[in-house]
Amino acid sequence: MPFRQTPGFTAGRFSLSAAASCGAYWAMRRLRLILALLLTALPGLAWAAVPVFGYEVVNRYPHDPQAFTQGLLWRDGGLYESTGQVGASSIRKVELKTGKVLQRAATDPFQFGEGIVDWGDRLIQLTWEGRKGAIYDLATFEKLGDFAYPGEGWGLTRDSRRIIMSDGTPVLRFLDPDTLKQTGQVSVSAAGTPIRNLNELEWVDGEVWANVWQTNFIARIDPKSGEVVGWIDLNGLLDPTEARSADVLNGIAWDPATRRVFVTGKYWPALFEIKVTEPKTP
Ligand SMILES: [Ca+2]
After folding, report:
1. How far is the CA of 2 from the centre of ligand 1 (A)?
2. Could you give the CA distance from residue 116 to residue 201 in angstroms, rounded to a whole number?
3. What is the value of pTM for the model shown?
4. Is residue 6 part of a domain?
5. CA of 96 relative to ligand 1 center, distance in Å
6. Is 208 domain-assigned?
């Protein structure tokens, strides 16, 4: 979602990286998680018991700093991206190494574009509050039709048989890929606390990964139980100068063939290939 911003309030903009130089690093990482999730108005602290994974940057690539990224996926050797904002929403095919937009189509100028997912030869895009999504030809970006759904549209991903959708609540919906009708759902929680603001999604090796909106954390979700089995702390990807002109983390793509993870954000100048590192004992 969206554009309701709280400038200077995002956990990722806190400059806590200096703590890495002392023994308090892991305690600080957990503090950042607490701060970030408190800012999303989560009740309770029970989720803090969930492991917090780190990251290493494998590669850094250019990213269009005008792209208000709402969806990101890897398909057939390239990146597909969707962008938001009324009047500026789009779907794009992007060259990884240069960030160059190879192909682009504007979406409905009156709608706020949200997440995308590929299914067969189609590309499917949500809108935020429009209660309707659009279906495109994956190769040509020709619009093939619309579909309706209740509530808000935030993120999309898929496994081998279902499309998975977030809507700003702690619920992930499962959709039939052909009819795009809801066939099921799971409620997401961390140690018993519901986790809302699940935003851009990615299916990664049997888990659903979800940006938590307005934080620099990704929730690793067991799609069967909805349990958050880990957090990934992505604070520090952008340097402080870059972070000042950027918006929040949003965008996860997974290339299963090479097991690469890509992440970016809204108006970010860079897209990163990262390696997730194991949690360490505080
Ligand atoms: Ca994604």
Report:
1. 16
2. 9
3. 0.86
4. no
5. 15
6. yes
pLDDT in tens, 130-164: 999 999 999 999 999 999 999 999 999 999 999 99
CA 83, CA 78: separation in Å to the nearest integer?
17
Domain housing 155: 21-277
Of the ranges 8-17, 188-197, 203-212, 257-266, which one carries the lowest mean pLDDT score? 8-17
Number of structural domains found in the chain:
1
Helices then strands, counting H and E runs in the chain, come out as: 2, 22
Question: At 100, which CATH number?
Answer: 2.120.10.30
Distances, alpha carbon 191 to alpha carbons 22, 160, 225, 268, in Å: 29, 28, 12, 32
Distance of CA 163 to the CA centre of its chain: 15
Distance of CA 210 from the midpoint of ligand 1 (Å): 8
Tell how far the Cα of 179 is from the centroid of ligand 1, in angstroms: 21
Rounded-to-integer distance, Cα 143 and Cα 137, Å:
6
pLDDT digits (tens, 9 = 90+) for 66-107: 999 999 999 999 999 999 999 999 999 999 999 999 999 999
Is 5 part of a structural domain of the chain? no
Q: How far is the centre of ligand 1, averaged over its atoms, from the C-alpha of 272 (Å)?
A: 14
23 Cα to the center of ligand 1, angstroms: 34
Q: Do the domain assignments include residue 10?
A: no
Residue 95 CA to ligand 1 centre (angstroms): 16
